[in-house]
Design goal:
The radius of gyration is 14 Å and the shape is globular. A 5-stranded mixed sheet has the order 1-2-3-4-5. The termini are far apart. The chain has one domain: Trna Endonuclease, Chain: A, domain 1. It is an alpha+beta fold. The protein is built from 2 helices and 5 strands, in the order αβββαββ.
Length: 121
């Protein structure tokens, strides 16, 4: 059982690394990785063009069913929003914010990435 969890966390870390690389390549500045507040965790917090962007990264290996972005349900979105509100307060952010999802599907050829801007409110 522990082996499976280890694999899942390795897959998640790999997906976050891929997502961060993608965001950097299109001009985002990564401010935080795996930022936590109480029971909320935000995978990536970035800034671009005066926007503060909270990014939920979902990764699946090619063996899993469904698309990774489908795993972001209302409960998960609310946890991210809750964490974002706290982060905005802590850093005294006065500008606009946005919530994105980066979906990473790992496969035998590498990966497929889908970046969904303004994914939820």
């Amino acid at each position: 059982m522990a082996h499976q969890k280890h694999d899942k966390s390795e897959i998640g870390k790999r997906g976050e690394d891929i997502a961060a690389g993608h965001l950097l390549s299109i001009g985002y500045r990564i401010l935080e990785r795996n930022w936590r507040h109480r029971r909320s965790e935000i995978d990536l917090i970035a800034e671009k063009d005066g926007l503060l962007i909270f990014v939920e990264v979902k990764t699946r290996s090619y063996a899993a069913f469904g698309h990774p972005e489908e795993a972001v349900n209302e409960y998960k979105a609310n946890k991210v929003i809750e964490g974002a509100e706290e982060y905005v307060y802590q850093v005294n952010w006065l500008g606009d914010i946005r919530f994105d999802i980066v979906s990473v599907e790992l496969n035998e050829h590498g990966h497929k990435l889908l970046h969904i801007e303004d994914a939820f409110y």
